[in-house]
Design brief:
The chain is of the alpha+beta class. It is built from 12 helices and 15 strands. Helix 1 packs antiparallel against helix 3, helix 3 packs antiparallel against helix 10 and helix 8 packs across helix 10.
Length: 472
């Protein structure tokens, strides 16, 4: 991040990301650990991360360790089920007495329960300290891209979208019922919009198809796009070219443009036109950076390489709808319910055959870490992280409750089957099931992580044109 000017700052943020991520894992596994102690189960290991340990220490017969696969964690309980495929092998010991199905259910359920409790605790703190709203309230279309599905559907500037596929929408982005979310999570081949158009007495209905831009094989599949743009009010600086006048003047990525030579701008095109019209005349820029006003004088220059270019400052711009970023104080219950709704929407769209959302759109440890890092680089970082902990812990709890072997829900399902049948599942069958789903889980983690990494790779695979300015 451009705003992170020193190595210690970057190192501190990375450390915080690691601590937060592992705290979430630790609390989940602590639930299993304490429940196992309460029910009198034998505990072999308490480990953060999977695979054979790269560090371990044995205390009172329990081996505590850190695995080499940086994802998840576990408490090794040999009386529950064989988990060698994911836990990196168990300690050799004499056969242990069997435990009751109710003990297995309690121990398995304790992990998700502790995740919910951590989510609720974070939600309680957020309800007191607040978090940024990050909500774009506009519902008005300002621009329709030429040749886009939105243009073919008949959208016009000034249209106000009120419903999508019959669902009432609220704002352009930042909510589960926003226009952006409703478009990308829509199902079927068409998206039906209800719009209020100036001059029309009644709302009109527009049916639009969508486009999904092509991405490279190593990247996530792009999301659905209709080609309609919201009203914008803010213009931001992109990443300045190395050695360009903008970089030399001290412009940082994410700076919000307030004015140039006293003139305010709300569209990127007008900013670019104004800069080009001034040639090599020095320009007085006013930016907002972390709630502070920054005044910079930038003199456009004609680059030495490539030749024949107009004077430029070496800076890209992007616009955005106005976001409401004031602090809100949602109740703990409200936060939990909203997160459950998001989780339900994600799961139903991933499994839906008519949705464009797939497993590849999920995030693994790398994606989660990158998101936390960005949050820590923004305004109100700790409030954002606390709010994110609500989301992440509920997701962890629900995913672990799914009735698949290896997961906590799988242990509960097997225990219920054992209680009904009056005997446990045969060891060989259970080993095959556990090993198969462990391999599937690790493969899924590797696949999702590859997308987390791939999204940061240049999609064109080509080097961008290099500009050299006078003085470099």
């Amino acid at each position: 991040m451009a705003s992170l000017s020193t190595v210690p700052q970057v190192a501190l943020l990375i450390l915080v990301v690691i601590v937060v991520f592992n705290l979430i894992i630790f609390v989940h596994e602590l639930g299993h650990f304490w429940a196992a102690k309460w029910r009198g189960l034998t505990i072999d290991r308490f480990q953060i991360w999977f695979g054979k340990p790269i560090w371990s220490k044995t205390i009172n017969g329990v081996q505590y360790g850190l695995g080499w696969i940086p994802a998840g964690g576990f408490v090794a309980l040999p009386q529950m089920a064989p988990m060698e495929a994911i836990e990196g092998g168990n300690i050799d010991r004499a056969p242990l007495p069997p435990i009751k199905p109710i003990d297995k259910i309690i121990v398995a359920f304790a992990g998700p329960l502790f995740s919910f409790l951590l989510a609720f605790s974070a939600a309680l703190v957020v309800s007191k300290v607040g978090k940024p709203k990050d909500f774009a309230p506009t519902q008005t279309v300002s621009e329709i891209l030429e040749g886009s599905p939105g243009e073919r559907a008949g959208f016009k500037p000034g249209d106000k979208i009120t419903h999508i596929n019959g669902n009432l929408v609220n704002g352009w982005d930042g909510r589960i019922d926003s226009i952006f979310t409703q478009i990308v999570t829509s199902e079927g081949s068409d998206i039906v919009f209800t719009v209020e158009r100036p001059g029309e007495a009644k709302p009109i209905t527009l049916t639009s198809h969508f486009e999904i831009p092509e991405t490279r094989w190593w990247q996530r599949k792009a999301l659905r796009q209709v080609g309609i743009m919201p009203e914008t009010g803010w213009v931001f600086a992109g990443d300045p070219m190395k050695g360009a006048p903008a970089a030399a003047a001290g412009v940082q990525e994410g700076d919000r443009l307030i004015s140039i030579d006293g003139q305010e701008f709300t569209a990127v095109e007008k900013v670019i036109d104004y800069i080009r019209s001034k040639g090599e005349t020095p320009l007085n820029f006013v930016f907002e950076r972390k709630k502070e006003t920054v005044n910079l004088t930038i003199q456009p220059r004609v680059p030495i390489k490539p030749e024949g270019k107009n004077a430029m400052i070496g800076l890209s711009f992007f616009d955005s709808p106005i976001y409401e970023k004031h602090i809100v104080y949602p109740g703990a219950g409200e936060q939990m319910v909203d997160t459950l709704k998001q989780m339900w929407l994600t799961i139903t769209r991933v499994i839906s055959p008519t949705s464009s959302i797939g497993v590849g759109h999920l995030s693994g440890p790398v994606g989660i870490a990158k998101l936390q890092y960005r949050m820590l680089s923004m305004e109100h970082p700790w409030q954002r992280i606390l709010g994110f902990m609500v989301l992440l812990n509920i997701n962890l709890a629900i995913l672990n409750m799914m009735p698949f072997p290896v997961l906590d829900g799988g242990h509960i399902t097997l225990a219920i089957m054992e209680s009904i049948a009056g005997r446990p599942v045969k060891a060989k069958v259970l080993f095959v099931l556990q090993s198969g789903f462990a391999a599937l889980l690790i493969s899924l983690m590797v696949f999702v992580t590859s997308k987390d990494i791939g999204d940061g790779i240049n999609p064109t695979g080509e080097k961008s044109e290099q500009y050299v300015f006078p003085g470099n």
